[in-house]
Amino acid sequence: MDIKWIKTFIVAAKYENFRKTSEELFLTQPAITKHIKRLEENLNILLFERDGKKIALTPAGHHFLPFAREMIEKYDQGLNDFESWKQGYKRKLMIAAAPQIASSFLPSILRKFMDNNPDIEVIINVLKSFDIGEEMSAGRADLGLTRIVPIQTNIKCDVVHEELVKLVGPTEACMFDEQMILQNYRLITHNHPVYWDQLLKNVKTHYPTVRTMKVNQVEVTKRFIEEGLGVSYLPFTVIKDEIAMNKLVEIKSDKISPPASCTYVLTKVETDEVSIFISFLKDIMRGW
């Protein structure tokens, strides 16, 4: 039984339409028909009813579909595991990380972790903070790194780091105070999933005429600030490298009390690989 026949069957079952199946798989319709016919001959049963150009799953097709999906899942997993083995990995760690974390301190931590644990294959899936809880709950990741407390009740959530948020601006504004910076630059908002509603209310209480601009990505926010398009409140780990390289400058707070930003680690089943990574993460962050 050819694995290609089974993959074609699964897509054909989804659409119950050979033309759409051929478009998704980049195959000709005769090739799709041939795959299904060969699979039916191999199983000695019809999987689709044909009525002209219309097709529909037979009872046998409905019954075979979950087995087909399981076979493909095991096949793909087996190939992935074999590829990992060829590369010298003996264990695997799937991490779901929020963009703010993945683009700031995570790369340097990962480099040290992988140097210390060369037999662990690390896979990173970057997701919005709001989606990481669901990813963990569904078992699609071993560990989550996020900026918010998840709503799912079947996962464990611990704070691994808490840091102050800093008001930062372009280097040209290095001599400005809080009042001058908020009067002369747009305030770039909503680049963090938690603190902006309350923070913005606080800012407008003291500076009611402040102009704002929503930008929902941290990396874009930093580039906008560097180009003089605005200023923003960002967690220190997100902007510490830019401050060190004199690309951004910190503006001291006066009337506004910046909030704190927490990094949470999410777990569901604490495997050895998860425990090793969390211990490593906490050791490094204690040094901060």
Automatic annotation (TrEMBL):
One of its GO terms (molecular function) is transcription cis-regulatory region binding. Residues 1-58 form the HTH lysR-type domain. The keyword Transcription regulation applies. CDD domains: PBP2_LTTR_substrate (cd05466). InterPro entries: LysR_HTH_N (IPR000847), LysR_subst-bd (IPR005119), WH-like_DNA-bd_sf (IPR036388), WH_DNA-bd_sf (IPR036390). Keywords: DNA-binding, Transcription, Transcription regulation. Signal peptide: none annotated. Belongs to the LysR transcriptional regulatory family. This is LysR family transcriptional regulator.
